[in-house]
Amino acid sequence: MPTYQIHALKYGGPVSSSGAFLMWQRDWDKTAQRNYYLWCLTGGPRPVVVDTGLSPAQAAARGVPDYDHPAEMLTRLGIQADQVELVILTHLHFDHAGGVGLFPEARFFVQRSEYDFWTKNPMAGRPVFQFFLDQATREALVGLEAAGRLVFLEGDAEVAPGVECLLAPGHSPGLQAVAIETERGRAVLGSDSGHVFENFSQDWPSSLVVDQVALLRTYDKLRDRAASLDLLFPGHDRRLAEDYPSVAKGVTRLV
Questions:
Q1: Do the beta carbons of residue 103 and residue 82 sit within 8 Å?
Q2: Which residue, 96, 205, 243, 248, has fewest beta-carbon neighbours within 10 Å?
Q3: Beta strand extents in the chain (DSSP E only)
Q4: pLDDT for 146-164, tens place per residue?
Q5: What is the predicted pLDDT for the residue at 164?
Q6: pLDDT for residue 102 is more than 90
Q7: Do the domain assignments include residue 217?
Q8: Residue 75 clears pLDDT 90, i.e. is over it
Q9: How many domains does the chain have?
């Protein structure tokens, strides 16, 4: 069984908001900051990319500050985006799946429940959901399905030796976390199940939740699967970029 190194690639941010954005109904009077990331797993038979970031055009349209091109960031790890074969999409919000076009040779692993909601469920057309998935991303995903480049999962599944996708709904209908074997034991990329470490450690979600009960059950599952709480990583915490060893501009090694 291979063991992996987990790299966080900060492609945008920080972005400021009320603290209540990151801690549901708390810290209204505080200002909190978050970053945008994708992740890369190295040390196995082939690199695995987790989420895609955004294209330059999408980043400009969304006003992402301090944007850094995800494909350029991967080259700092010696990886060419057009040679990546396996990308895990944790969920289909714009900041995690908007850059699928940056990986022209990859297959994308996604939970069927997540894909079906965003591309087939009329509820996804309601304004509160439209914010999270733009039309260009939706069309790109439908095109990937037609090309046979989407791999649909229905629950927990190993997608590479030592890499397992874990169904983890709550933040979105079919979010999946990623469990990874490392030298320190099993680490879990929780993605936006928790935006910051405190969501997991204090059992207190962020404000962006479609199913609070499901999310709290997800917390139980992810904390159980990670070898330790410090190996359960959130999706947007600034500390991912600040408290871990830097290996290149904008790139840190989490494990």
A1: yes
A2: 243
A3: 5-18, 31-42, 48-50, 86-88, 107-111, 150-153, 157-160, 163-167, 176-182, 185-191, 232-234, 246-248, 251-253
A4: 999 999 999 999 999 999 9
A5: 98
A6: yes
A7: no
A8: yes
A9: 1
Q: Which domain holds residue 137?
A: 5-164+236-250
> 39-67: per-residue pLDDT in tens?
999 999 999 999 999 999 999 999 999 99
Query: Are 162 and 1 spatial neighbours (Cβ–Cβ below 8 Å)?
Result: yes
Residue 83 belongs to domain with CATH number: 3.60.15.10
C-beta of residue 195 within 8 angstroms of C-beta of residue 34: yes
Is 221 a member of any domain?
A: no
Chain mean pLDDT for the chain: 97
Which 3 state secondary structure label does DSSP give 128?
helix
What does pTM read for this prediction?
A: 0.98
Q: Which helix (H) or strand (E) holds 68?
A: none
DSSP 131: T
Question: Could you tell me if residue 229 is inside a domain?
Answer: no
Helix (H, G, I), strand (E, B) or coil at 34: strand
Residue 23 lies in a domain: yes
What is the full DSSP assignment across 136-180? HHHHHHHHHHHTT-EEEE-SSEEEETTEEEEE--SSSTT-EEEEE
In angstroms, the Cα distances linking 200 to 93, 167, 238 are 21, 16, 15
The whole-angstrom separation of Cα 6 and Cα 133 is: 27
What size, in residues, is the chain?
A: 255
* Lateral strand order in the sheet of 107-111: 150-153, 107-111, 86-88, 48-50, 31-42, 5-18, 251-253, 246-248
> pLDDT at position 133, please?
87
Tokens for 144, please give them: 């990937």
